[in-house]
# Entry
Amino acid sequence: MSMNTQNRIFLTGDIHGQPQLNLSSDLFPEGKGLTKKDFVIILGDFGILWHKLRTKEEEHRLKWLDDKPWTTLFIDGNHENFDLLDKLPEKEMFGDKVGIIAHSVFHLKRGICYRINGRKILTIGGAHSHDREYREWGRSMWKEEEITTENINDAIEAVESVMFDVDYVLTHCAPVEFAKFALPFEIMHLFTPDHSEENLSWFKQASQLTFKHWYFGHYHTNTDDPFMGQWTCLYNKIVELTDEEE
# Structure
């Protein structure tokens, strides 16, 4: 990892309402040396805002995260309470609007190209839940989880404004051609593309976007496959966006 201690950005995968599982001091010792000008970005399935009336456990976990030395940002996944996310107060940060969760915890919206610590970062949250038989509409699953055509149109408009060239793309799920290879080999043959993955594929082809790297979560694995090239899936691994990569 880079030894630069200023303006740092780290990425990690799904936390499902339990940030300590990825970001405890034992797992993330670099966090001790960060400041609120440094950022940790969660690639979807943030999940701390889940109950209509926030529980004591949610308050505790949110305070745990807010008290960390860094600022936490996240894109939405599929396992989010979108009724709560959509009602968050907003503020201007990184050149556009973000949702305010706490003093130093913010939601990065879909189809926006933010400028974070000098990097152009496109964010497109959302994905399809594959455990729907265990979930209930409006209580543990929301139609807003899917990546829509409107989200993709917003993303195309955003990258058009920067001449279709960004530093990083952050999504929860992945385009079809990379989603399959994020799965364990033994179940890869069972892969069936869903609407959100197909929309990301369409965006990739339609925009002809250039980027240094595309990171995503959702598939509960950490990929280290040369075939993936500029594409990386993160789950419980933490990576830093470094000058070397740029």
Remarks:
- Confidence is low (pLDDT under 50) at residues 1-5.
- The helical segments are 20-23, 56-66, 82-85, 149-160, 176-179, 195-207.
- The longest helix spans residues 195-207.
- Residues 213 and 230 are 5 Å apart (CA to CA).
